[in-house]
């Protein structure tokens, strides 16, 4: 999960740097998309410190995480990609290809991250003995 977030940050920053002068709204929108990371990191901290699904704060954070994930990382990013395609006449071909590749990679990374989040939060699985430490299932950080 950390590697996906790392690549997402690298691509988002590179798009921000490349298109700041021409497309300031894109750079601003990518910064707005990063607001979802607050809930993602807060979830990780809560799980790290023993938070569980029955706590109200965990449930509220999880709801905010999934709502902002879908709203900001999917709907908003797909809208930006479509807008980018419609405005392709305003830019050079190499810039357009780099930008569209960046947006497509961000969408794929977000799909993978969302699938892993969904599987972690909602899939019921039996813990194996080696996953138990002091009677609690430990999250594995890759």
Protein architecture, described:
The protein has 142 residues and is mainly α. Helices cover 71% and strands 3% of the residues. The chain contains 5 helices and 2 strands; from the N terminus they run αααααββ. The protein has helices spanning 2-18, 24-33, 36-48, 56-86, 93-122, and strands at residues 132-133, 136-137. It has a two-stranded antiparallel sheet with strand order 1-2. A hairpin with a 2-residue loop joins strand 1 (132-133) and strand 2. Helix 1 packs antiparallel against helix 2 (24-33), helix 1 (2-18) packs antiparallel against helix 5 (93-122) and helix 4 (56-86) packs antiparallel against helix 5. It starts with a helix and ends in a 5-residue tail after the last strand.
Helix content: over 70%
Q: Main sheet, how many strands, which sense, barrel?
A: 2 strands, antiparallel
Count of individual beta strands: 2
Order of strands across the biggest sheet? 1-2
Distance between the termini: 6 Å
Helix/strand-derived class? mainly alpha
